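ok trying this again, last paste got cut off
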Amino acid sequence: MTDIISSKIARCILNITGWKELDISSYMKKNISKGKYVTAISHSSTWDALIFLAYKYAYPEVFSTSLIVVKPQIYDAVPDWIKNILDNIGFVKATKYEEKNGGFVKASADMLNQKNKYLFLISPKGAREKYPWRSGYYNIAKETNSDICIGGLDYEKKKIVLFEPISIKDKTKEEIEPILQKQMGKIVPLYPYCSEVDLRCYNPSKTSLFKISILIIFIVLILIFLFYYSKKILIGFIVLLFIFI
């Protein structure tokens, strides 16, 4: 019952903010929660993890095994009880970008080898900014005998994208990376200038976090509600808007 309610709430949030219903191949819908996949994701914003999380709760039958690697600063900034919550919802703490030998590959492989199925979401460049791809995603896949697939959030089309997995058993990183990068070029991130791959043609005016018109309506409705029920909360809400927008 709880899963049904959280799914409906998450789908409602996605719809309100302009994000589309799950639109991936029937093969992926049937198999993504049944196998072992390391997913190299397009990444340019902290919002990526939050929207992925919304899709995870909206479609638990597809993303129930997903684990999302997030920057260590998030964990460093919160108390232990929040860290436990982050762990429980499927977040995995990364090492800092400059820590190239920080043990993340081994720790991740050890964790995944204890699981029968997972969708491990990781940025191949190890950061939001524009950097070359590192080898972590590939080494984790090798050490866990996982297939690799490309995924991400397309901020122009407002949908999640997942390409079908590729076996890397007989492929080197140099052989498989051009194929993966070509696929990733079909996904437009929130900040295209942070992309390390050549992107498909896209409309910059349509590339945004939310559909602005829908978001404005949503904010207005919240303001009206708060005006009638709690002016103190309304003032706090307006302050937060000025801070974050």
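PB: full thing came through this time. The mean pLDDT is 86.
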